[in-house]
Request: fold
Amino acid sequence: MIANSIDAKIALEEAREEYAANNPKSRERHVEACTVLPGGNTRTVLFYPPFPLTMVRGKDSRLWDADDHEYIDLLGEYTAGLYGHSNPAIRAAIEKALDGGIDRGSQNGLEAKLAAVLCARFPSLDFVRFTNSGTEANLMAISAARAITRRTKVLVFDGAYHGGVFSFAGGGNRINAPFEFVVASYNDLDPTMDLLQRNTKDLAAVIIEPMMGAGGCIPADKSFLQALRDATREHGIFLIFDEVMTSRLSPSGLQGRHGILPDITTLGKYIGGGMTCGAFGGRAEIMQYFDARQANAFPHAGTFNNNVLTMSAGLAGMSIYTPEAAEQLNARGDRLRRRLNDLVKKEGVKMQFTGTGSMLNVHMCTGPIRNPAEAAKADKDLADLFFFDLVAQGFWLARRGMIVLSLPNTDAECDQFAGAVEEFVATRRPLLAA
Reply:
């Protein structure tokens, strides 16, 4: 690791310089990409200066970049890579699907089987329909709520992320879908209830992640979720749980853990076994609007909604991620988060780890974090420095500090990561003084 610096900005610049020197082939790949992709990128979250790493292969819980550096993968494709990079059962399922023909343009039988697994797993689902991403699932859920209720507004939360056209960090994304959004503060009960009450006649839906993922792995208070459930039910507003990420945090998602059922649930990420996937579903009386046997049913198109690769891989994956496997993985994550928080508390540094189960996020600050506004008080330079220092030690995580355990991650790898965090604290202590 590079020598320490008393100034965070100087230390960060030094870390970036060392990173650039150690990754010349990734730099070359980035320069080449910039000739055909704006900024050399087609997925914004993966970009960071001076240039992003190019990963060229993966196996189990490991990744290798273009310069042949090896990493322990603690990002898990932002929760989608639950099964690691080379699960033999998923590979066999994909190969079998390929043998049967890739694009059939028809029902294939697998979509009903995967739907049955999801309806059995998540208590709010009577019926489900598939999409190609969590973004698309949320778009369909919100659009259905607006069409059924014949209301126009949607209550969302500051700092929330529900997909590429539903991003509400920093005042909202300029290319968000053109719906009328009412923005509340996450976990802030009284102002949220007041805002909801003032808009009851116009609100079609409230959409919320039971734990914010991209917003910093910030869990919602159960009492907050219950108050939303009670108020939306009273006023005929649809409650949508975005469990695209959080559905993996217990055998039946956070809705099952809390015993609070939404009207519509959206899913994605890992349910496709590592393939492109999304889904939305809910009560029978809602989902019947998509029943094509009925006159005036809502149309729901999508060439690849039921593609055989996703359906086959998803079925294999859900058979691997049993309730027992979910309990074990999330218990491992809880142990790691407690261990890391005990470490930074003992060392007296401005650093903490939020999250639930197998999803964690580091924040360079002290004090409670109950919403993104409180998380925004953290030191961003130190967060970047943490990313570059941990990459230099051979750990792959999100630049924003998100850490996700996947099934191939072992207790030994968690021990290694805890040791790397301890080394970061020891090396950067002058910068981390609380």
Q: What stands out?
A: The longest helix spans residues 323-347. The two ends are 22 Å apart (CA to CA).
